[in-house]
Amino acid sequence: MSLPARVVTLVVAFLAVVAGGIFVAFEFIGAQPPVENYTSYAKGGQVDVTLMTTAQTTVTNKPDWVTYFIKNPNTGDFDHTTSFAVPANTRVNVTILGYDGCTPLRNPLWGKVAGTIGGVEDVAFNNGKTTSASQPLTTFDSWANCSIQHTFAIPGLGINVPVASPTTLAENNALCGTSPCVDATADQAKAPHSVVTFSFVTPKTDGTYRWQCFVPCGLGYVDGNGGPMATPGYMMGQMEVQS
Amino acid sequence: MAAEASSAARTPRDDSRDGMWLLIIWIALSVIGCLLVALVWGPHMPPGAQSSSAASQQTDITVLAVLATPVVIGVLLYLGWALAFWRQRPGDETDAAPIHGNTKVQATWIIGTAAIVLSLAVYGTIELISPAGAGAGEGPQPIWKPAGTTTASVTSWAPGTSNILQVQVIGQQWAWTYRYPQFGGFETTQLMLPVGEPVQFNVTSLDVIHSFWAYTLGVKADANSGVNNVAYTTPEHTGQFQVRCAELCGIWHGSMYNTGDVVPVADFVKWTQTTSTQLADVTKLLPPYAASYDPTAINMGKINAALGLTGAGGGFYNPADPEQP
């Protein structure tokens, strides 16, 4: 092989390796879940954000991982992401549709509602047919009643909201089996779930706040805190506050 | 010729004169440097003086800096002098004069450095003992405790008494919580301390290893599941301080921090009363106060009665049965 051919081969091989590395870095290592941007949907100083929890993630290659979904404010679809953006100094009205079963908290302190307007959350239950009247709750005993499936906590803002779980054995045995739980057919339509609503006010300045679940729901991982508990897009994410 | 020129350029008298100047300049600069380090820089040395242990650490760092100052000045001065006056002149290709052993210099060096190292070891040991562990975790059975304090009661506390204030620090992925057993055992995400009162931190974890690091309080203690790691300090100035995790503990390790407050005693007592009342409904759900907690010891009676648990329920998460990704 001539010298120019060797040089060209070497350069091409080098560029191919670099390109492969860049592709892996951006496509896999640096990949981040999409951000649901609610900033342009605020009206009258308020914005509505809807999240969903499911017992599985059938839309990914981790079907046995519990996860959150966030409603796309534009399409109305539930996207598999845990990042969302909200405007600054705005009242955020959050609705969480809880389709998972219960799991006890490791630290019962996280059964206390904190950081929300009024220090309460409103909880209703849907048994697959009807939705009960909403009740304001401030504290959950997850050890005695197994009443919590996950929490939605933003430690940087002092927010902690336990997500109530469906209440009965029958409901637990009939959980939604395909995520997100929105199809009007099959079991999803009949799946029991909780409807948790609460509100909080965002800070006046820009910032990024991480949020997480404090229920150790990473089944099978050390201390229950691996897997979905430690992966963006499942049981933890970020809230961007934009002014 | 060159060798002759070189040797003719410098005489033993020149060397003696250089040595005298070096010594005089070194002493003068060292005195000035030590005074600047001790009096100007010292009060601003980390970690500050917000607590007894922090002040003790600041003193230690200042002492070490003062001791190091003459050494640094000596090295730099000698280097500068050599570059300025002893450098090889253009055209001079001779070797330097051969160096022979000097017993006095060697003995002085060995004895001097040994004395410095050993005295620093003694000083360091005393400084670890006298401020009750210097703010570091001493394990479940601390050897060094703050003078004049007792653990007469872990269920009650009053300011100005010898009974030391107990604060349990609980690490969990990824937040710090704090429990006050002497005020009904409430647990909170706020760390509030009274000024001028000795504090006993009981540091533990509910999952992986964390490390409680209240930097400006000069307190740092690892948080291990099932272990009570005790550290002491006495806050001496009111104000805020940062708490960080100093042990890589997972994806949100970098976000595992919060801000604590040192407040007047009266404000602290009022805060405990208010917080205890506010958290009364969740305090009764907490496990009884203990030095540490077994994260797998959950009262599963009623939970198992509701079998049908899905998701991640059932037998909880036995650390001995992991599934690694």
How would you characterize this protein structure?
The complex is a heterodimer of chains A (243) and B (325). Chain A is globular. Chain A folds into two domains: 1-31; 34-242, Immunoglobulin-like. Chain A contains three helices and 13 strands, in the order αββββββββαββαβββ. A seven-stranded mixed sheet of chain A has the order 4-3-2-6-11-7-8, with no helix packed on it. Chain A has a four-stranded mixed sheet with strand order 1-5-13-12, with no helix packed on it. In chain A, strands 9-10 form a two-stranded antiparallel sheet. The model of chain A has no long low-confidence stretch (mean pLDDT 87). In chain A, β9 and β10 form a beta hairpin. With 243 residues, chain A is an alpha+beta fold. Chain B is of the alpha+beta class. Among the domains of chain B are: 2-86 and 115-131, no CATH class; 165-283, Cupredoxins -  blue copper proteins (Immunoglobulin-like, Sandwich), CATH 2.60.40.420. In chain B, 38% of the residues lie in helices and 18% in strands. Chain B has seven helices and ten strands. In chain B, the strands form two sheets. Chain B has a five-stranded mixed sheet. A five-stranded mixed sheet of chain B has the order 4-10-9-6-7, with helices on one face. In chain B, α2 packs antiparallel against α3 (52-85). Chain B is elongated and about 90 Å long. Mean pLDDT of chain B is 86; it is low at 1-7 and 304-325. At the A-B interface, α2 and α3 of A face loops of B.
Descriptive key words:
heterodimer, A: 243 residues, alpha+beta, Immunoglobulin-like, 3 helices, B: 325 residues, five-stranded mixed β-sheet, 7 helices, 18% strand, disordered C terminus
Condensed summary:
Chain A is of the alpha+beta class.
